[in-house]
Amino acid sequence: QVQLVESGGGLAQPGGSLRLSCSGFESIFDFSSVAWGRQVRGEQRELVATMTREGGTHYVDSVRLRFTITRDTAKNMIYLQMDNLKPEDTGVYYCHARNWVEYWGQGTQVTVSS
Questions:
Q1: Three-class SS state of 83
Q2: Terminus-to-terminus CA distance in the chain, angstroms?
Q3: Residue 80 β-bridge partners
Q4: What is the dihedral of CA 88, 94, 97, 100, to 10 degrees?
Q5: Phi and psi for 64 in degrees, rounded to 5?
Q6: What is the pLDDT of residue 42?
Q7: What number of other Cβ atoms are within 10 A of residue 68's Cβ?
Q8: Predicted pLDDT of residue 103
């Protein structure tokens, strides 16, 4: 049973940075992709940063050049470095993994406010 656990959320000022971590993978290579999703108020949950098993990455336009997804294959963890945060980045961030099914973590709150 895969149980993904996020950590690292919290409060940041506009223009600031946060780094999220996700654990719970027995092996990252068991999944065709790993990702970070978020749900902001009033909107559907969406994947904002994705990494394939081969290491390719994809970002939605709203976070491209500000967020970076990385992985540590020795520790079987993934990370989301979030820089130049904006108030509209406020929401719950989820770790996601996909093989023949999808897995979601419980989420961690990120609040960007002065």
A1: coil
A2: 40
A3: 20, 69
A4: -100
A5: -60, 140
A6: 84
A7: 16
A8: 96
- Average pLDDT, 10 consecutive residues per value, the chain (114 residues): 94 98 93 97 94 97 98 96 98 96 96 97
Helix (H, G, I), strand (E, B) or coil at 107: coil
Residue 82 has which token pair? 């979030």
Joined tokens for residue 102: 């999808």
Query: 99 with 33: CB under 8 angstroms?
Result: no
35: amino acid identity, one letter: A
Rounded distance between C-alpha atoms, residue 39 and residue 45, angstroms: 4
8 Å CB contact between 37 and 55: no
DSSP string, 7-58: E--EEE-TT--EEEEEE--S-GGGSSEEEEEEE-TTS--EEEEEEETTS-EE
Nearest alpha carbon to residue 49 among 66, 64, 39, 36: 36
